[in-house]
Design goal:
The protein is an alpha/beta fold and about 250 residues long. It is built from 9 helices and 10 strands. Bound molecules: adenosine-5'-diphosphate (ADP) and magnesium ion. InterPro entries: AAA+_ATPase (IPR003593), ABC_AA/LPS_Transport (IPR051120), ABC_transporter-like_ATP-bd (IPR003439), BCA_ABC_TP_C (IPR032823), P-loop_NTPase (IPR027417).
């Protein structure tokens, strides 16, 4: 197996007496979708927060692209190419979808785009931003304010923003939540294609999506991973069936 993009070892986080993550280890391999499943309160979001840097781990290590990122803040981790989407909405509500993506393109370009007199008409921002919106299927809504987009469209926009940052890995926390069957199907197809651009750690309750997408699945229960394996291995695992799949 190749060097993992993301290497998590023995991560722990307690909230008072509650061990939300209790020694979690996992590897995210290049080109792969690694799904993280488990019941409500298992610690999935806590784990995502710890990896993204919005929550500091009590102990354990996180290596990203070979570098220990445990002491970096969330912005520094994002600059290294760790993109998180969902459950934190960073949309500028009054701005159009296009403008939101342009801000991300600008942020990525950093100091080389230091001064904009006419940000809103700069082709160096508009063209790549529009291309991102096309990729996520939102180009026809480019000029609609973020606040007026539907739930599903906002998720598409958040992905476009994440893409604009040209990430090396994605962290997705329940991207299908609140989406109808058609939206979930579209997003599944989209994520499927995305794995070769950047691997992803995907927390998701929608088992159809998980089974369709995952190269590997880890099952988290009460802060501990009780099983990791391929879709087939996880579906066959008696402990998983008992603890999570409810069979
Ligand atoms: P999941 O995403 O798997 O549903 P969470 O990571 O959100 O689970 O939560 C794991 C456990 O930690 C839950 O029991 C939850 O109530 C608790 N928890 C999460 N965040 C906090 C917090 N900021 N303060 C106290 N308890 C928390
Ligand atoms: Mg959660």
């Amino acid at each position: 197996m190749s060097e993992p993009i993301l290497e998590i070892r023995d991560l722990k986080k307690s909230f008072n007496a509650l061990k939300a993550t209790d020694g979690v280890s996992l590897d995210l391999q290049p080109g792969q979708i690694h799904a993280l499943i488990g019941p409500n309160g298992a610690g999935k979001s806590t784990l995502i927060h710890q990896i993204a840097g919005s929550l500091k781990a009590d102990s354990g290590t996180i290596r990203f692209l070979g570098q220990d990122i445990g002491s970096l803040d969330m912005a520094a981790r994002a600059r290294l190419g760790l993109a998180r989407s969902f459950q934190i909405s960073s949309l500028a509500q009054e701005f159009s979808a296009l403008r939101n993506v342009m801000l991300a393109v600008q942020a990525k370009a950093g100091s080389s785009f230091r001064f904009f007199r006419q940000v809103t008409s700069d082709r160096r921002l508009i063209d790549p931003a529009m291309a991102m919106l096309e990729r996520v299927g939102l180009a026809h809504r480019a000029h609609v304010p973020a606040a007026e987009l539907s739930h599903g469209e906002r998720r598409q926009l958040e992905i476009a923003i994440a893409l604009a940052l040209q990430p090396k890995a994605f962290l997705f926390d329940e991207p299908m939540a609140g989406m109808g069957p058609e939206g979930s199907k579209q997003l599944t197809t989209f994520l499927d294609g995305l794995r070769h651009e950047a691997p992803m750690l995907l927390v998701e309750h929608d088992m159809d999506a998980v089974f369709a997408l995952a190269d590997r699945i880890s099952v988290l229960v009460y802060g501990r991973i009780i099983a990791t394996g391929t879709v087939d291995e996880i579906r066959r695992d008696p402990e998983v069936r008992r603890a999570y799949l409810g069979e």
